[in-house]
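Example for tutorial group B:
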């Protein structure tokens, strides 16, 4: 397999995420400018929804596995952090974890990441080798075609 740079990983991750959202019945839009929102998953009127609903998503695509939190996303109260893992793996299928910013920070708090200088001083923390414990905390946020509606629409 060809070595993938970060732009290729981002493109593959974006397309994988978009495909999963489409399979779950959402439409997807891309903002023209990057101001902290990478995609908007939305539903317009259908048999279950009687109004337009749009949910902002920040994509965190990784060739392997990376969990990160960034204080700058606190300004988006309903932002979904979509961590797409294992995009270059021959061992694992890609996995998506979707958390609100508050949920991502709560997981980081459980792991002790919010007590680090990186978080306290810089306002961010990156973990490039997630432990089994972190993966267990993320498990309830793993997305499938059947769980996207509940996550994004609160159903």
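The residue assignment follows.
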């Amino acid at each position: 397999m060809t070595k993938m740079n970060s732009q290729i990983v981002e493109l593959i991750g974006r397309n994988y995420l978009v495909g999963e959202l489409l399979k779950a019945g959402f439409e997807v839009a891309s903002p023209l400018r990057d101001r902290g929102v990478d995609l908007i998953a939305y539903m317009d009127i259908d048999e279950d929804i009687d109004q337009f609903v749009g949910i902002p998503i920040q994509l965190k695509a990784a060739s392997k596995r990376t969990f990160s939190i960034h204080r700058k996303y606190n300004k988006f109260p309903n932002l979904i952090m979509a961590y797409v893992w294992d995009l270059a793996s021959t061992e694992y299928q890609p996995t998506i974890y979707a958390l609100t910013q508050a949920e991502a920070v709560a997981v980081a708090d459980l792991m002790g990441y919010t007590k680090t200088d990186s978080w306290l001083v810089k306002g961010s923390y990156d973990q490039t080798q997630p432990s089994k414990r972190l993966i267990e905390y993320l498990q309830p946020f793993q997305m499938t075609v059947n769980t996207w509606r509940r996550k994004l629409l609160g159903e």
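The longest strand covers residues 53-61. Compare this with the pattern of hydrophobic and polar residues in the output above.
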